[in-house]
Every structure is written in structure tokens, then in C-alpha cells.
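Let us work through a complete example step by step.
Step 1: write down the sequence.
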Amino acid sequence: MNQTKRRNTPNKVVCGYPISIFFIVVNEFCERFSYYGMRAVLVLYFKYFLQWDDDLATSIYHTFVALCYLTPILGAIVADSWLGKFKTIIYLSIVYAIGQVAMAVSAIHDITDSDRDGTPNNMTFHVVLSMVGLFLIALGTGGIKPCVAAFGGDQFDDHQERQRRTFFSVFYLCINGGSLLSTIITPILRGQTCGIYSQQKCYALAFGVPAALMVVSLVVFIVGSGMYYKAKPEGNIMLSVCKCIGFAIKNRYRHRSKAYPKRKHWMDWAEEKYDRLLIAQIKMVLKVLFLYIPLPMFWTLFDQKGSRWTLQATTMDGNFGQLVIQPDQMQTFNPILILTLVPIMESVVYPLIKKCGFNFTPLKRMTVGMFLAALAFVCAGVVQLQIDKTLPIFPSTSESQLKLLNMGNNQLEVHLPNNFTVHLPPAQNKKLIDDLTSKPEEGNNAIRFVNGLATDLNVSTAAVNFGIIEPLTSSNYSLLKNGKHTFSLKSGSQSCEYTIKFGFGSSYTIFIPSTFTFGPNCQESVTEVEEIKPNSVHMALQIPQYFLITAGEVMFSVTGLEFSYSQAPSNMKAVLQAGWLLTVAVGNFIVLIVAEIAKLPKKWAEFFLFASLLVAVCVIFSIMAYFYTYIDPTEIEAQFSQEKDEEDEDEKDKMRKTEEHVTKRGSVKSNDSDNAFKLSKM
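Step 2: predict the structure and record it as C-alpha cells.
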């Protein structure tokens, strides 16, 4: 095998490593940046650009993630049975890049904004294009997922085991590095404003940069083409496993009558056609796959950090002093904590637990990981309860709201039905026509001005022009970002500079009273009425839930793969990988089912529901784990190999005896024929 590699691979080595792997590492970094960058802003794109509600945005987001974890099975079969890894990566990367470009184009609002008001007039075009783009991305990213790492491993000869291990470590680092940088950068790009006719949040740029990185990833991979070792497709073990299981089920059904004797295991019904060693290997794999049944519920909770938790962050205060965190940037805590917790767990926590004499088996670690994820959702529910306390109460569909405005200089007493009396101080309000019916989204602040002067008033700021406000009327609401804003107030030749600082998600009505005087102290005459309080629950309160979910991921995911690989035969790793990815896909589909069936009006109740479901599943998994018996696949395979060798020896002995017997009979027949010939001659 080594000689074959050397014949087909140019002898180019840098620092002991094949030069080809540098192209693969750069390719992986760019691809992961592209995927996680696009995914970081996806749920906000659904909510604010396509104007979907929270439930629909969450459902489509998790459908997309589920597809991304279903298509790797298809990619592995195509690569191993038909195209080979190299061609599979090339072709599906092209599909992937087209999908990213389609997403970027779908986010350009000016394409269908015929009236130039900043909102697309043909939303169907944007929805269809984005759905096509997401399907192509799911096909591309999932299809190349099982190929790139394996293709990198193929570049090493057998004597380069140390370099191969280092490559996989660097490869894993590139995955987390690309994820970390993209979840920091793309939310910043989304927060910018861009457009030809009107300036809006720049989702096109947030998707465009990942699209550009995917094109770079493809180009880099193609440039290294002449340096790669390209193994030919050798068939996919998953197909053999499926055929063997299918034959066993069919054969068992065919012999379901009581006339046929029972067999020890239902897979034994495949012995008529398949090798006993393969059947034994499949039994070992099925034993592990049975433990996978409860696992999707963990992923149901884990992947909501990109949907429900991001939407939760939009109603929180992201001001960290000199740094303002965007809601979708909170996801960066996950890769940061992974890079921190993995070495701490492996070198400190697990050895310490072992020293204390506690047998912390892989299945026990996974159980604790599931419990930590449930605890993370309890934290999320508690945070949501705090957020709900700060949210304004708006009238329902059967109710109305009335706002009263006192533009005079004296206090007014207003009598309403049911003996309800309201006292209005000068230049104050108690709820105006054309009012807000929901809290401003994306952390923006809804601001309007009321002109109490007898003359027209022109109000403008660097971001928004409120226009001319006629006497005793108000402007429409305009949305402004958080931070300081300076307004220019002009009436005729007189002007005033008025400065105010806004938080996140507030609403203000700013009164210019009839007693207002222009001049250096004009700001003192302005009255601000806070109608909707700014987000007061800080985003820092989400850090504990991110810490718990990431600690759970390290104990559950890393340990789960390690356990699975230790309990499966060497030629069945791909089958377990497919099964593991399938649990992720099923977990994301469960989010859709719960979101659609439960329809809980309160978000905190939904968080607690998911936590309760995972605790219940955690109990079931712990019982299954208690009765699980650890095995050594190598020993079992060795036993079968020994039995086969003994059977072969027995078969050879029988053959030898048969041949000897035939030879003796042949010699007897030969003597008899000679005697007969002599007698006939005589």
C-alpha cells in the first residue's frame, strides 16, 4: 500500500508533512468559516428580513440543520462506492458555493423593492431563492463532511502515524477556529447598513462574505490537485451492513413458522448468505446503536443555541462597556469554551475523579452531559422569566389602547368611563393614535417627536430625517440604534442641538413644549417620555447557560464518539459515524414537532418543557447504560478468526484424507485393470 502511494504521489514534503495537507487544512478553515458564519445570522434573517414569526423561523432553521446531518451518509456512499473522495469534494463544493451565493443574492432587498421603502415587494422571490440556497448548502456541507478529514488522512504513509495524529489535531483546531471567527465577524457585518435606494441591515454582506470564503475554499482545494494521493473507491461498508440486515429480516420472516427452530439472535438468520464474522461485527454495532435511541433529545436542546437562545438575546442588553455584543455573537462562547474545556476535562477533571476512586465510565459521563444540558435550559427559562418582567403589556385583539397628550402648561384632570380619573402633567402623555403594538425589534429604539410650538419644526439626526413636523402634531416613529444620538431642531432661522443616549429596545416620545426656547440651554426645555423601557436584562446572564451546554457537549459528544469507536469493530467506524449524525438530525426534527404541537404561549415554559424531557430521557439512558456490558471487539474478532482458522485446518485435513483415500482406491483399480488385461491377453 505504501509503495502505491509513493508511485502516485509527488515526493513533496515540508517539515515531514506532505505538502498536500496544507491545502486541505486551509480548505477546511474556509469551509467552516463559511458554514458557521452563514448559520450564525440565519434565524435573524428569517425573522427580520423574511418577516417570519419566531416559531416558523425556528422550524425552518432546525429543518436546515437536520438536512446538514442527513446528507453526510449520502456523501460517504457516493465517495466510497462511485466517485472517490477527491471528486466528491470538488463536485459538492461547487454545489455548496452556488448555494451560498444564492443566499447572498436572496438577502439583497433592493432587487424587488420597487417603491424604495426598504422592504421587498416580492417576498416570494426572496423566500424561494433562500430555500433553494439552503438546500444546496445542506447537500454540499453534509456531503463533503465525511470526505475531507478522511481524504487528509489518506495523504500520509503508514510510517507517518505521528504526523497523521498532528494533522487531525490541527484539522479539529481549524474547525473551531473557523467557527469562532465567523460567529464574531458575520454578526458585525449584519449589523452594518447597506443598500442602493435605502439603507437596511446588511444581511447580503453577512451572507456574501461566507460565500466568498467558500469560493476561496474550493479554489485552494483545486490548486493542490496535482499533489494529492487519490485512493480509488473501494465500496462502502454501510451498504454491506444494510444488505446483511435486510437479508436477515427477510429470511427470518420467510421462516417465521414454528416448524423452524429458533436461533440465538435474529441476525443469525443471515448465516445462509453472509460470513459469520461480518454478522458478529454487525451485532456489536447494533448493540451500540441501540444505546443511540435516547440520544437525539440532547441535540434537540443543544442546537437551539442558534435559534431560541439567539432570539432570546434580541430582547436583552448587549452593552459590555466599551464593547457592544450583537445577539448572534453570543454563540461565540460555545467554540471558546470548547477550546478551553476539552483540555481541562482530559488533563484535570477526569484524572481527579479517577484519583478519588470513582469509576467514571464513558456512559456515566454521557449521562452527566445530558443532565448539564437540561440544567442549561433551566437557566435559560429563569433568564426568560426575568426578561418577561421587563416586557410591556400590549392590548390583545379584543382590546384597545388610548393615549392622552397634554400640550398645555397646566396639569389636566381627565375623567374616563367607569369612574377612572387620569392626571396629566404639562407636556406629558398617557398612551396617542398610531401607536406601537410590539417592542422594537433587533435592539432598535422607536423614537418620535411631538411639536408643541406654533410654528413648523424640522427634526433630523445623522441616521434619520424626521422631516417637518407641523404645529401640535407628531412625527412617525423612526428606529435608531443604541448609543448617543444628537438631534438638530430647526424652526425658521433658529436651531438647537439636542443629545440623548438610548439603550436597546426602548420607545420614547420627545415633546417640544410651547414654552420651548432656542439657545445654548434648549435641551433643558425638552421633555422625554419613556413609553417602553429599554432591555434591562443583561446578555451576560446567558453565559451560565452557554457554559453548562458546552460542558455537557464535551462530556456527551466527545465521550460518546470515543465510547462508540471503542465498542465497534475497526471496519464499522463509518456505520457508527452515520448513526451518530442521524441522532443529530432526528434531534433537530424533534424541535419542529415540539414547537408545532406544544404551542406554548410563554417561552420560559417551553425551555422548562425541553429541560424536563431531557431529564426523563436521561433517566432512561442511565438505566440502559447500567445494563450495558462493555466488550472488546478485537478479542471477539480474534476468536472468530481463530475459529475460522481451525475450521480451515479441519477442512484441509478432510481434503487430505479424501485425496489419500482417492489415491489408494485409484491404485487398487489400477492393479485390478492390469490383471484383467493380462488375463484377457492369455
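Step 3: interpret the result. Residues 633-681 form the longest helix (49 residues).
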